[in-house]
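Can't paste images in this forum, so I'm doing it all in text. The chain is below; anyone willing to post the predicted structure tokens underneath?
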Amino acid sequence: MGEHRRADSTAVRRRLILASRSPRRRALLAAHGYTFETAPVAVAEVRPGEQGEPFAAVAENARRKALAAAGAAGPGALVLAADTLLVFEGHSIGKPTDREEAARLLRRLGGATHRVATGVALLGDGVEEVFCEVTAVRLKRLTDAEIRAYHAAIDPLDKAGGYDIDAHGPIAGGVVASIEGSYSNVMGLPMERVAPLLGRCLAGGSAGSARWC
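Text version of the structure:
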């Protein structure tokens, strides 16, 4: 397990475990000052649409990851897991397989609005919270030359939709034209909802019953 520490972590009563290998999720938690361990897990994931509403899949996948990590962590641990999905015109969009597909995705998404949903599960002793957060994102319409220059500056194969909300590259102001909802949700963890839950649960409180999309 990887571990992140800070000097004032003595106030935390529970071990926080992030069941994810995502650098962005690690960075978001670290930026908010949390001490945590990382324990990525592999689970059989639900595909979008298998359980009705496409966004229900991310909540279920997060729950499965949290359960798997909690089983290995033992008592006293608080496990945080997440799963993120991009949906456009009723279809889910994942990471491109090559740069040609990445360019096609940016051309397809340009000038239009898509939705990004992150399912979050927080499990531990007396804690069971499962929810998803949805953010609407509108991308700029880029020329082929701008797309090539942008993809030369970032790694489009590691990003759903072939874009990075946090890396502008040569595009002034980045590729995002507007956003409605949580910015950190697009990065993989809606901290506006996660931080209050962690603040209460790490101190020994209860998050309450599970919620869904």
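The longest helix spans residues 56-73. Residues 45 and 155 are 25 Å apart (CA to CA).
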